[in-house]
Design goal:
heterodimer, A: about 160 residues, mainly alpha, elongated, B: about 160 residues, alpha/beta, 5-stranded parallel beta sheet, 6 helices, 5 strands
Chain lengths: ~160, ~160
């Protein structure tokens, strides 16, 4: 029983750490963009994938989605939706990165302003794939039925 | 001892799963839409009140154009202005690269440029074409080189200096 409890505790700690990391990454990324949205508008345009009007709207809206997702992941209120949005946004971003590179556009994503600049595309893709994997793992955990909780308090029956 | 409240909660969840197997996905969709909607509100506020947000047409970039605010420290500056325009002053350490002296100045540029360094080209004003042409010519001449032309040209660079 002790072994099982240890495994459960480790799983719980890993999940908490993953939630902390994922929420933090989205909060930091969104916060830096929301602080200087004009700069982020240039970063969005550097992909040359969207017309100017859509780039304008994306640069206004995306930082706040990231901020609210980060907060929801941390607080637990609306976590399922936040994790789903995190997965969707990151997959779209990976596709945009690959498409831009395929079209010969060499760029920095502007994800973390000047704080974190990825040295190359492979590193960038690995980081984002890790984010998707983490968010999917948490989403799967969220999707599990809630019936695993014990109905009888241990040691008192 | 049986915890009555928890039993009721678990039974309620089981009942809901039984009558509505799509409950998880519906919750997920509802929450996603709520977060996206909340972000729309915040975006409208940003548009209306953020001091760092450009007016609608001001932020537009052409292909290969870069604003001064987005230029990082470790770049090679290339000056594409003519000799007459250079009398207005020149940036320290900026390399000359013009269409008319291409062969000679390109050799000098290539000796100075470190592979991997981004190149930013500017010419005299907001409307000049030389920087665009030189940046394109550099991209063709050196495969893998990242070259931009500066939005606002020399004027923008000069205005940013104290």
């Amino acid at each position: 029983m002790g072994g099982m409890e240890g495994v459960t505790a480790m799983k719980g700690a890993a999940r908490a750490l993953l939630l902390l990391l994922l929420g933090g990454i989205f909060l930091l990324s969104g916060g830096l963009k929301a602080y200087d949205p004009g700069r982020f508008l240039y970063d969005v345009q550097a992909f040359h994938l969207l017309p100017y009007g859509l780039s304008f709207a994306t640069a206004l809206w995306l930082p706040w989605v990231e901020i609210f997702c980060g907060l929801a992941i941390w607080t637990g209120r609306g976590r399922r939706g936040a994790l789903f949005l995190a997965v969707a946004m990151t997959i779209v971003f990976i596709a945009a990165l690959l498409l831009a590179r395929w079209r010969g556009v060499n760029l920095q994503c502007g994800c973390f302003g000047q704080w974190l600049i990825f040295p190359n595309l492979i590193f960038h893709l690995c980081f984002n794939t890790g984010l998707v994997a983490g968010a999917v793992a948490l989403l799967v955990r969220e999707a599990r039925p809630t019936t695993a909780q014990p109905m009888i308090e241990p040691g008192r029956s | 001892m049986i915890d009555g409240g928890r039993v009721v909660g678990v039974c309620w969840n089981r009942f809901c799963d039984f009558i509505d197997p799509m409950r998880f996905w519906k919750t997920l969709l509802r929450q996603s839409l709520a977060l996206a909607g909340l972000s729309v509100l915040a975006a409208v506020l940003t548009w209306a009140a953020h001091p760092r947000w450009p007016a609608y047409p001001d932020g537009r970039l052409e292909f290969g154009e870069i604003p001064l605010a987005a230029v990082s420290q470790n770049v090679v500056w290339v000056d594409a202005r003519s000799d007459e325009e250079l009398t207005a002053g020149a940036g320290p350490g900026h390399l000359l690269l013009r269409e008319m002296n291409w062969d000679e100045e390109f050799a000098r540029f290539f000796a100075e440029w470190v592979p991997g360094q981004t190149v930013v080209v500017y010419c005299s004003s907001r409307d000049c074409q030389a920087s665009k042409q030189i940046a394109a010519q550099l991209r063709r001449a050196v495969p893998g080189l990242t070259a931009y032309h500066l939005k606002g040209g020399w004027e923008a660079w000069k205005e940013s200096r104290p």
